[in-house]
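COURSE: Structural Biology Practicum
ASSIGNMENT: Worksheet 4, Part C
STUDENT ID: 0417
INSTRUCTIONS: Below are two proteins. For each, the amino acid sequence is given first, followed by its structure token string. Answer the questions at the end about the second protein only.

PROTEIN I
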Amino acid sequence: MADGMKTELVSAIHLQEVELQEKPADKPQDCENNNNNNSGDETFTVEEAVETIGFGRFHILLFVIMGSSNIVEAMEIMLLAVVSPEIRCEWRLEDWQVALVSTMVFLGFMVCGVLGGYLADRYGRWKVVFAGFVWSAYFSLLTSFAPSYGWFIFLRSMVGCGVAGVSQGFVLKTEFIPAKYRAYLLPLATIFWMIGSMLIIILGMLVVPTLGWRWMIRISVAPSIILIFLFKFIPESARYNVSAGNIEAAVRTLQKIAKMNRASLPPGRLVEPAVKERGSWRILLGPSFRRTSLLLWYSWFVASFVYYGSVLSSSELLEKNLLCVTDADQEHQVKHRHKDGLCYCIPFALSDYQTLLISCLGEVALIPLNICLLNVIGRKMSLTVMQLISAILFMLLNICTTMFGFTILLFLLRSLVSMNFNVVYIYTAEVYPTAARSLGMGFCTSFSRIGGMIAPFIAQVLMSQSVIQALSPFAVACVVCALGNFLLPIETKGRALLQSS
């Protein structure tokens, strides 16, 4: 009996020791459960998700496909410089009629720029960009069948509308890129613009002398058609989906990007309030952005004015032999004006195409300098410096020099005005909130097209009267714009993209 009680007592003591050992072991489990519950309460924003995912394979795909949209835009715009001598000859056009072609393209761009921005903020960036591809390709193809000058300028204005939608691709691309990579990747998009410009010049050099300008336009539509099919690999902006209240779609997009980049989303769940007032002009002219918007509109006007001024001026100077050069090509001693009137048929020589090609290379030659300026002195000062140097280069074109000297000046000028256009794109996409980013870009591009509408009448009409009178307005506009850029109130270098104002 005593042995039984003793055994029972030992068992009880042993059981108590086991319980004492198990209790500390239970505590970590309870703590783990508490941590799980806490992680369920953690939240993150789209900005945090984009930064956490970082740069990877998705962004390379995004860079290639969306960068290629710049090829389409550049080809449609540069086509005007290449085709101008041909349509002047075919329809015996006056200078102002040739200039009107470019003006009508930019008019279509201006009208549809604001509309495209509004639709992109209200209904999504992807839809607007895709529609722009289809629209511009369709009407560009129709342009090649234009039976008359009137039909030609109408169809080119429709192309301008489509290109306005394509330009919203810059916003879509920007909203996916982490902050620290934007100053590196966005300037590199200039490479695609250069490729588009060179493609249309090479097409003009190879196709126009044999098959004519109509076949050149038909062949130039091919990149747009290819991109229509590739664009399905690009998702809708997660920032837009969040602002529209579509959290599930934003999460799916971010998960897809994280999987492609072999990364993971931040712990917790995506929580960000929907923005009721999307695509409202009141945001652009509200107290927070009024001064920025007004200065940016003028900056975009000048960016387009001087860019297309440099492109069309170079084309006009070469076509009409208005350059003050000491070693002019013998084939281009024929002047545009004769005693008997205008000479309508002065096609580009091979050397003229080569000069335009070299000047196109200038658009990417200074990309390393562009990236350096953006990261060191910021967006505002980069714009200021580039505008001042551009003004000097415009005036230097009036100095008599050799053809090689003119090519170098044109090369540098195209570099500077292209860099300026690129930086103003970056600044605009960064400074406005998601709720009005596309609309802000739309307003800015519309103001830029006003500059594009005016530039042909100076570069292609006034140039025939006086080279210095035609180049001076571009230089003066650059100087005034440099002051405006210096007065911009916000610097966006290294800053996160705003979701709302």
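PROTEIN II
(use this one for the questions)
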Amino acid sequence: MAAALRGRAGPGAAAALWRLQSRRRSSFDVAVVGAGIVGLAVARELIQRHPSLALAVLEKEQELAHHQSGHNSGVIHSGIYYTPGSLKAKLCVQGAALCYKYCDQKGIPYKQCGKLIVAVEQDEIPRLKALYERGLQNNVPGLKLIGAKEIQEKEPFCRGLMALDSPYTGIVDYKQVAQSYARDFQEAGGTILTDFEVTSVEMAKESPAESEDGLKYPVIVRSKKGGRLSCAHLLACAGLHSDRVARLGGGSAQPRIVPFRGDYLLLRAERRHLLRGNIYPVPNPRFPFLGVHFTPRMDGSVWLGPNAVLAFKREGYKPLDFSPGDFLDAVTYSGLWKLVLRNVSYGLGELYRAFSLSAQVRQLQKFIPEITTNDVLRGPSGVRAQALDSEGNLVDDFVFDGGSGAVGSRILHVRNAPSPAATSSLAIAAAIADEAQRRFQL
């Protein structure tokens, strides 16, 4: 049954396993920076390929998957949107299949509830049909175009002229998935160190003759709280801080991470019957990550949104969250101003809707007219680590980077892992592990 609930495991099972890690070992063959879903998937992939190596994951927070991986919509995307033949399209389609298979194997609950991408204006229909052709070229299962009557058969309260029906789309709790990756990694012998915020990466200045490690682990990594470890190679999947961690190891200043906050509304519990599955708009090709979404969640709630506005703090989930350093990093970056000046009207519209509940509801009413401002509450937010080049272009593909000097050949920075990274995490992990093997000759 496509919409059936799968699995039994709850997110609390062995949730604190990583806290039991022994901290006696201080030297590792490979250290992975960042315990989000991508970093954990990469660590899991590496230890499965190379079980004899000593591997560690370093995480600055006290819990895993705390930021982007724990603040996303929870959608298992099917791979419709991406350029046919691109790595991004391939990884999403592969990643979705791997995600469903992994959840079945581990007993992680999910729902394959489907998605409708709905055209509500005539000028959206050609774009919707082009999206359908793109999805077919990407080998997305089960796609079909449906008319207004079929839309209402699937979503009785939704109004639209035409829709692309994607039955393969699902939902899952990605934080639970990430924690499962962590357990796999640890059970295979890996080490996870939390509360380890990397502040320094450098080559050892000397190797005492009495050291049994000799030159085997020449990369020295230090943390904000005085922690220190050595490793042969470093692989960084630092998400919102990927550009900063890259610069620590002599990496390029480009691309820069510019944080965009997405705010969601919540549909009141007594109105959740208005929705059965995911409802999405026809994407704007200039800003593919914008547009109001209707998203059911594994806990039974329904998220509406998000918008997209500049965040004044890289991990700022509230409108008034502010970091002077993060703010200056963003507003002094020429790439951001070039993006803003090209899209002033879009930016102002998003900013207005961020503060106006009625403006957000008007967007929702294009799809479900019955929704009113009394039916919604302000809900959670997430922050997207958007990689932006100096010309103001949104970076939409992998960016791998080493660094300068002797340390550069021993570091691989994943500066940008293409969205939807959570859906594609297992496929992305294989691609990153391939790159690490090539660079590090593991």
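ANSWER KEY EXCERPT:
Q1: The radius of gyration is 22 Å.
Q2: The CA atoms of residues 61 and 127 lie 42 Å apart.
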